[in-house]
Sequence to fold (554 residues):
Amino acid sequence: MTETFRDARAPIDALRKRGRNLTESFFLSLIRLLGSVGALILFAILFFVAYNGIHILSWEFITQPPLDAMTKGGIFPVIVGTVLLTMLCMIVVMPIGVTTAIFLSEYAKPGLLLKIVMMSIYTLAGVPSVVFGLFGLAVFVVTLNFGMSLLAGSLTLAIMVLPYIISTSEEALKAVPYSFKEASLACGATKWQTIRKVILPTALPGILTGAILGTAKVSGETAPIMFTAAAFFTTGLPRSVFEPVMALPYHIYVLATAGTHIEETRPIQYGTALTLIVLVLGMNLLGIILRSRQRKKRAW
Amino acid sequence: MVAGKNIFELKDFSFYYGDFLAVKSVNLGIEARKITAIIGPSGCGKSTLLRSLNRMNDLILTSRVEGEVLFHGVDIYRKDTDVIELRKRVGMVFQKPNPFPSSVYENVCYGPRIRGIKKKSQLDEIVENALVRADLWKEVKDKLHESGMSLSGGQMQRLCIARSLAQEPEVLLFDEPTSALDPISTANIENLLQELRKTITIVIVTHNMQQAARISDYTAFMYLGELIEFGETDTIFVNPYNKLTEEYITGRFG
Fold:
């Protein structure tokens, strides 16, 4: 009886399976194709920039200031400017961002206030970066009279990256198991002790990963620093936070559009672009490695 | 039962989650240095009742209580109650072992540390004491600085017990402490509870009726938020007064 049953069904089963396999493999190929297109574009850009920029990269290029109306020499003050802008920005944004995230994930009670704060953060994240640039110009450069300066630029960048820091930190805080909180409170810890001794340390790797990716984001931005911090050319390094600085993305922009020696500076433009890409990719890579290590280490 | 021996005294105690009445007007005394088991089917309010004893339910925003929970004769739901001090004196061990993601040593000295004890020698002593009392010292004395999460399930649960014991609590609340453990680890914990009873009052919520029968002195049976029957464990299991209790412990529902 089983024999007849199997015989009768066999051809139909085989047919149906093949049909399913066809659609399956079609979509799989499609997904693979589209996926590789994305990767291909990235590698094409990387290759293009590397191919054009690699021959100018040298120890002198990254340690010397620009010379001869920026047609010769290196980009040392440009690198320093970007590093300073980014560092100052992160120093400002991390305490504010993490504190806000703690408020949102641990203290805020569901209600109108929370809704307004959340909506503001999402909206802030969606604002184009040039708008932050104009805001920085109006508030920090003009109203607060910081002038075009390292400080004004860092603060503008900080406001731009703030929503990102808040949301990555909040995610990291919310990923801390509820049972840790319970255990701590049951030990007679106060809410703040619980946050400081259990929740924050547990969430720290996640918060740091967000910070590193945020740093990568900030260091590549042009529009926010255009009106607030970036100088066409400075003689030497900034001596205080109230001086303008050169920065990698802006340097590429001015060399490629605003100079009188656009053609002569092509190699320097590519070299600067390559430096910026290496910097950003390096930080992204560090963030990704940190994140995957922390996921592997997580035991709960 | 003589009233003076009771460390906890619940008087017409009710507990609401929003509008839902989870514990209905319970009157119950918990005797010092005994094991009191709370049994009943899922959702009967037994965990809620247990968590009311150290106000862990405070974490739930919409909760509300009526009646009194007297601890040494003082209502812990009074406005001026120091909840932190209460939780130090009434510790809690949870269903799923929940050590912190830090070393065995750091786990145990968490409580003493937040209370400001800094001296290494003093902390060392507290840690050793607590681990010995939790019957874990022999197994972990050479790996005090390894992660608490690298231990086995049963060891993790005893680590959590040690973490509570480090606070020198008067009462320990256990919320189904063995339901995530294998039979051998369960037996270890049960033996440990018998040992701890000599110095500490224990209240345990359990799904496992054999467990309640094996280890407890008193048993409370709850059903749909009500305390149906309370008495000496031997009486409850051999000669229950209420028909519902009898049906539950003989496994006819639950």
